[in-house]
Amino acid sequence: MNNVILIRYGEIFLKGKNFGFFEKKLIENIEYSLQGIDCKFQRMNKRFFVSDYKVNDERKIIERLKTVFGIHSISRAVMVEAEESKINEYISSLSLRENTFRISVNRADKRFPINSIEYSKKLGGLVLKNNHNIKVDLHNPDVDINVDIRENGIAFIYYDSILCLGGMPVGTGGSGLLLLSGGIDSPVAGFLMAKRGMPIHAIHFHSYPYTSEMAKDKVVELAKILKKYVGEFKLHVISFTEIQENIHKHCNNEFMITIMRRIMYRIAERLAKNIGCQSIITGENLGQVASQTVESMTVTNAVVEDLPIFRPLIAFDKEEITTISRKMGAFETSILPYEDCCTVFLPKHPVIKPKIEKCIFEESKLDLEKLIENALNSDEIINI
Ligand code: ATP
Ligand code: MG
Fold this sequence. Notes:
- The protein has helices at residues 19-33, 58-65, 84-92, 116-130, 185-195, 213-230, 241-250, 256-275, 294-301, 318-327, 331-334, 356-363, 368-377; strands at residues 2-9, 40-44, 47-51, 71-81, 100-107, 135-136, 143-149, 154-158, 162-163, 176-179, 200-206, 234-239, 280-281, 309-310, 380-383.
- With 384 residues, it is of the alpha/beta class.
- The strands form 2 sheets. Strands 1, 2, 3, 4, 5, 6, 7, 8 and 9 form a 9-stranded mixed β-sheet that branches.
């Protein structure tokens, strides 16, 4: 008998010919997540499990597995020889404090001599014999005992299933450059794209000295939280000070935010192409603020030449976003009160429905090419 943690994968089981590619990535990501813990990861007939760990490390292993996209659920289990006598012995040894139970046998190995229904009944009898106050409840039991008899002479017995993140293994879904601010939304946007298998890098614009070092540290902190789910990546910190000062000095103040965002997107696209990212990801959300109207998104989209822009939060309510932010452990950091560069030189009346001709006219007052080049040259790369 051996304590193990069983791992079930999610959506990748729908894959056909390329299943192997998805499975391989998932295995890599699981192994990466378990780094530094003394344990053994094994794959056996489309079942994964972790074994040979110290009891004290069990919780840590479960917490780590709960950060891996592509895992549907996990169960603490015991592994026994798939022999009737061994399974009976284990089930007979159970001492249950609950009031009701159910026992279900899954016989993947059809050579096992008793069929599932018969064996469930037999094992149920053994539980009843040794636990006097317990009753069978097939619909809503306090404890649900599962016996999974595999083809290779091994059976897993487990009770609980812990639901994990689901999604696809990171590394199977293209790549994206995340515009990461210090707010609630953008870390969640990165998390959701990674959930669909997309590895990310991040870009952050800061306006030192208008924004503080602490504001930057906060973004680094958020990036580290994302790393738990997406793996190692690079955070590119770009100085936006000169750009904001120039817009403030030369352009109609009402267009401040719109033009800032158009320049952010231009820089993001160039950086994305330089570092081989295939898309841009933002935390924008329809109607949340002035810069997040359809008209605003139209004029910001217009400057991006040929990369798709993903806005996974576009239709979410703030409450839904906050729930995910808490779940990923970012919320407490996101609400720390440091300023974002978007709040510097904020106009009293920003345009809500900007016209593209007006944006182009305002931008003609700037040496755009030079400003973008200087910003890209300011790139400070932080390994997360
Ligand atoms: P967030 O909570 O992500 O800050 P927000 O609701 O504050 O979003 P905006 O400030 O309008 O909304 O920003 C919209 C999106 O633009 C952000 O989700 C993020 O992707 C990007 N963004 C905003 N500020 C920055 C910044 N300083 N650096 C990088 N990206 C930014
Ligand atoms: Mg913001």
